[in-house]
Amino acid sequence: YFNEQTTIYLNGEFVKATKATTDLYGQTLHYGYGVFEGIRAYNTENGVRVFKATEHYERLKNSCQMINIPFDYDIDDLIEQTYKVLEVNNFKDAYVRPLIFCSPNMGLTKPNGVSILICAWEWGAYLGDNLLNVTISSFCRPHPKSTKIEAKVCGHYINSILATTEAKEKGFDEAILLDTDGFLAEGPGSNLFFEKGGKLFTPKTGNILPGITRATVIKLCQDLEIELTEGAFLPEDLANADAAFLCGTAAEIIGLQSFEKKSFPKNWNETLGKKLQTAYKNLVLEKELQETN
Ligand code: PMP
């Protein structure tokens, strides 16, 4: 992720990643009380572009506000600093990671103050390019009454790490997590869509991270006149689907091969997911939307 040359943005300054320090007595390190974002920059025909930069920094701000972490930054300035991080590191296709972490305080109280880090690294498709074999996780998503589930909080990712590790140990590529009522929720770092009878379905918000890619896919469905229903769905609905995919900033759009070892019947290249994947790639690369029939 970094080497001697890597430069990061830390509290208004550009410093070498290997020289930057943080203190050991903060609530983020000890309790997971911090928030972060995951953003992608693409080398488009019009130069390097940070995709949905405003949406990501708005979510960073909202995540902070939801969990009482002060956010006193200017979003346009953070976007500018993001472009500088990419520029000084000469990154063109990269993943950007802003993190807000707390100043020294060992109490279970509001933070004394915060720091902001923006780092970046070159990262290929997070879940690879091959269709995925997925399984239901024995871990469910955190109950929305136990935390602010719609905030992108550091500590929430223990749940994601446990689910991913379990799925991989069982020989699957990725986990699908249910909510505490047993309805389909999302992947450990992505949102879920499935296709049935020429229509698309996705779990409604409330128990999931409302993904920015998910919102982009919803918008693309409108543009491409794909019928989409947001609702509460059961694992059986996924088992009986014609096709399915996961989507997220890091994963982009990636199709599923099988669910609990049962293959989806539709050839991926003929699915709505494939059509959306092509449209998404064109969008992030700022290419004209192609007709993809
Ligand atoms: N759900 C979870 C739990 C995630 O971590 C992510 C990745 N941020 C997503 C969904 C997808 O969100 P986005 O499209 O904003 O990256």
UniProtKB/TrEMBL annotation:
Pathway: Amino-acid biosynthesis; L-isoleucine biosynthesis; L-isoleucine from 2-oxobutanoate: step 4/4; Amino-acid biosynthesis; L-valine biosynthesis; L-valine from pyruvate: step 4/4; Amino-acid biosynthesis; L-leucine biosynthesis; L-leucine from 3-methyl-2-oxobutanoate: step 4/4. One of its GO terms (biological process) is isoleucine biosynthetic process. The keyword Transferase applies. It catalyses: L-isoleucine + 2-oxoglutarate = (S)-3-methyl-2-oxopentanoate + L-glutamate; L-leucine + 2-oxoglutarate = 4-methyl-2-oxopentanoate + L-glutamate; L-valine + 2-oxoglutarate = 3-methyl-2-oxobutanoate + L-glutamate. Keywords: Amino-acid biosynthesis, Aminotransferase, Branched-chain amino acid biosynthesis, Pyridoxal phosphate, Transferase. Its EC number is 2.6.1.42. InterPro entries: Aminotrans_IV, Aminotransferase-like, B_amino_transI, BCAT-like_C, BCAT-like_N, Class-IV_PLP-Dep_Aminotrnsfr. Signal peptide: none annotated. It comes from the Bacteria. Acts on leucine, isoleucine and valine. Belongs to the class-IV pyridoxal-phosphate-dependent aminotransferase family. This is Branched-chain-amino-acid aminotransferase.
